[in-house]
Write a structure and sequence with these properties.
By secondary structure, the chain is of the alpha+beta class. The chain has eight helices and six strands; from the N terminus they run βββαββααβααααα. The strands form two sheets. A four-stranded mixed beta sheet has the order 1-2-4-3. A two-stranded antiparallel sheet has the order 5-6. Strand 3, helix 1 and strand 4 form a beta-alpha-beta unit. The protein is rod-shaped. The N and C termini lie close together (7 Å).
């Protein structure tokens, strides 16, 4: 399910902004894009998303502006500095150079000062970013809930249309079989010409026709799957995978029913059901 959430917090000299975007996905995929300061929090971020969501692709962007507290310290390399001083004094003595050695001379030397990363306090960093990140997720959830309410309404409407079409198929089932039986009798009579019709052979052919064209089981299973679909919609928690599986079963049954149908009217109704099931499948892909 798509959604977008954003949150920001400002301090005296710097600010932090978090943006979270969710896209449709069969599984749960989390993609954090973090500045160096917060890279050590990646696992906490992933865990927080997993606690709230079960499905979707989540892209997380964290932005820093201004001057946040430093996590590095400046270190004086005394060993290198002493070697530089000794070298400068030696040059001064050997070549009778005028002047005194000053601090500015050392500033030109490499590696006298070097930054050293201090050990990061993960809890402190999470105290900074955690509330902002959770607020962004809350905004995203609100957007997804609005989309979900609209999606549920659309799914229910399509499901009701399918139930109506199945009712029409149910009503046409027996008349369609009788028409197929009549066509079979007429075809046999045409082939026999003036020969006498064998009632036993006709009965055998009708039994074979009934077995070939009877889709009662497929119709019953379809109605059962739809009933189960309604029940799952009422459940609390992740529903997407269950509904996706039920739709696969519905497609299988309507395909078999369509192949068995002996009437063009029933085949046309089956095509309409397939179109609605395809719409449902697209919609279910958006459900967590």
């Amino acid at each position: 399910m798509t959604g977008f959430g954003r949150a920001e917090k400002n301090w005296e000299n710097w600010s932090l902004r978090v943006e979270v975007k969710s896209l449709n996905h069969r599984f749960l995929e989390i993609i954090p894009r973090l500045p160096k300061r917060y890279q050590s929090l990646e696992e906490k971020i992933r865990r927080t998303v997993r606690e709230r969501f079960a499905r979707g692709r989540f892209e997380i962007y964290v932005y820093l502006s201004g001057s946040p507290p430093q996590t590095a310290a400046l270190h004086v390399n005394r060993s290198i500095t002493e070697q530089y001083l000794a070298g400068l004094k030696l040059l001064k003595t050997l070549y009778h150079l005028p002047g005194e050695i000053e601090v500015r001379d050392l500033l030109r030397m490499r590696d006298v000062f070097c930054p050293v990363e201090t050990e990061e306090d993960l809890e402190k960093l999470w105290e900074e970013m955690g509330p902002v990140f959770r607020k962004a997720l809350e905004d995203l959830e609100k957007m997804r809930e609005k989309e979900g309410a609209f999606l549920e309404k659309t799914i229910c409407e399509n499901l009701q249309k399918i139930e109506g079409l199945l009712q029409q198929i149910q009503e046409k089932k027996e008349p369609a079989f009788q028409q197929a039986r009549q066509r079979l009798e007429e075809r046999i009579m045409h082939l026999l010409g003036d020969k006498e019709l064998d009632p036993a052979r006709l009965h055998q052919e009708i039994v074979f026709l009934a077995d070939k064209t009877d889709f009662t089981e497929e119709l019953d299973r379809l109605q059962s799957h739809i009933h189960q679909f309604w029940q799952v919609l009422k459940e609390i928690g992740p529903l997407g995978r269950k509904l996706d599986f039920l739709l696969q079963e519905m497609f299988r049954e309507i395909n078999t029913l369509s192949n068995k149908a002996a009437a063009a009217e029933i085949s046309h109704l089956a095509v309409e059901i397939k179109c609605l099931l395809e719409k449902l499948r697209e919609q279910v892909q958006n459900i967590e």
